[in-house]
Write a structure and sequence with these properties.
By secondary structure, this protein is of the alpha+beta class. It contains 15 helices and 11 strands. β4 (324-328) and β5 (330-333) form a beta hairpin.
Length: 463
């Protein structure tokens, strides 16, 4: 039996090659799951000695998954302390988002990618991150400006982050009509499961970390009224954080807000600095973001094997206990501010109805292809087995869950805040790696701590 006697199968695999060329291979997320592509870079970041080499991933920024690779490259350069290079990569990601926004109509490239996804899988669709990733992008760009000495540039970026939280909320509310229209038992069951995973976090676009960062910069740059507004938004999302509560009491008193007596009754007296004291603010990022898993279900249609693969998350998220900080006289306990993993799970939950529609269309398209091959094989009686086997292999190989997401984001974020006497301190997390910081009278020392597991990085600035 030769390929000359199987023209329909030859065309099938030719179509596969064409789809790959139209959709772009990048690191080939179409066939190689995305978490495995990023794993070596995470290992480099987590190693005490390894040098970070971003050449290969940065070269893919113009590819199908370019926006995602730009986000990853910018974040990895930032974790490694190269804020200038990180800013360049993040600018490319911001431009990519803007290009998505500016498209007045679906382009030929978009149409070919959507068509490829119906034959292959959702990885053929150019990556456009969920709202929480775009919000985090501007927040991290703000950190690049801030730790490079440009506080006003940082303020511009966090304002953009705030605007995006509002626009994402509006977009989500509009999309709910479509979600309700597509709802069925399968969708409802999976959404319910993912909802239980995220606990009290109810959306992907309301991020206490971003609001807190905005409020902090407003306060440090002399705009306490705006700071109060954003601290309050952060506290509405994470109501049990005692540091947010203390910030609200303090600012309410300083600004003579009508809420002061209410806040004082709920959370205690305002804590103000003493003479010759400065303030230490710590933002602690822990771990790496949760990875999507693949849920694959095999089945048959008209005697032909097919598989359905959907992205999902574990049913339980890891909760990091309050982190202890030594070196400031007494042990200071950080408190949870934001669970980035929960934001990611909610983003998947919000996208699930549309993903299931694409999956249903893909299953139908592949079933039609299989039936076409089977009909042709029946006509050519000596080709039944070869045609069926080739089509089933095609279905199994191409059915891959879309596991793409920004994986160098932190898993969780905690904060701590305390007034201490001016001087030099040697601080550490959980009695592990340490660093020396300076605290000045009537100034704030902001310490950004990135703990990837085996390695802890400290970045500080006095404002």
């Amino acid at each position: 039996m030769t390929w000359n006697t199987l023209p329909h199968i030859s065309k099938l695999f030719s179509s596969l090659v064409l789809c790959m060329s139209l959709s772009g291979c990048a690191f080939n997320s179409i066939f190689i799951n995305y978490p495995s592509q990023i794993a070596p870079y995470k290992q480099q970041l987590n190693s005490p000695t390894a040098q970070l080499n971003l050449t290969e991933i940065a070269n893919e920024i113009d590819s199908n998954d370019g926006l995602l690779y730009a986000q990853e490259s910018g974040r990895m350069a930032q974790i490694n302390g190269d804020f200038t290079q990180s800013k360049t990569y993040f600018d490319q990601a911001i431009e990519a988002y803007q290009a998505f926004d500016d498209k007045a109509k679906v382009s030929i490239t978009d149409m070919s990618a959507q068509a490829s996804s119906l034959v292959l899988n959702d990885n053929a669709i150019p990556y456009r991150g969920p709202g929480y990733e775009r919000i985090m992008l501007h927040q991290y760009q703000a950190f690049n400006y801030l730790f490079s000495g440009d506080a006003q540039g940082a303020l511009v970026e966090v304002r953009r982050s705030n605007e995006l939280q509002s626009s994402e909320q509006e977009r989500y509310q509009k999309s709910q009509k479509s979600v309700q229209a597509m709802a069925n038992g399968t969708v409802d069951a999976e959404i319910d499961k993912l909802g239980k995973t995220t606990g009290s976090v109810s959306s992907s676009f309301l991020n206490a970390y971003s609001y807190y960062t905005t409020g902090l910069l407003y306060e440090l740059l002399g705009e306490p009224n705006d700071a109060f507004i954003d601290y309050r938004k952060a506290a509405q999302i994470t109501p049990d954080n005692p540091y947010l509560q203390k910030d609200l009491v303090r600012l309410a008193k300083q600004l003579s807000m009508p809420q002061y007596n209410e806040f004082k009754r709920k959370w205690g007296e305002a804590v103000l600095p003493k003479k010759d004291q400065g303030q230490v603010v710590m933002i602690i990022e822990k771990g790496f973001a949760i990875e999507k898993q693949s849920l694959t279900v095999p089945f048959t249609i008209d005697g032909n094997w097919q598989t359905v693969s959907l992205a999902t998350y574990p049913q339980r998220l890891n909760n990091v206990p309050p982190i202890q900080i030594q070196g400031l006289g007494t042990v200071l306990k950080a408190q949870p501010l934001a669970n980035i993993d929960a934001l990611a799970v909610n983003a998947l939950k919000e996208d699930l109805p549309a993903a299931l529609v694409r999956q249903a269309l893909r299953t139908y398209a592949k079933a039609e292809m299989a039936q076409s091959v089977r009909s042709e094989s029946k006509r050519r009686r000596d080709q039944i087995d070869a045609g069926a086997i080739a089509m089933q292999l095609f279905n199994v190989i191409t059915e891959q869950a879309d596991r793409r997401s920004w994986l160098t984001l932190p898993s969780q974020v905690q904060i701590a805040r305390q007034y201490v006497n001016a001087g030099t301190y040697n601080i550490s997390l959980e009695n592990r790696q340490n660093t020396s910081i300076d605290v000045k009278n009537n100034k704030t020392t902001l310490i950004w701590i990135i703990d990837t597991g085996n390695r802890t990085r400290f970045y500080s600035i006095i404002l």
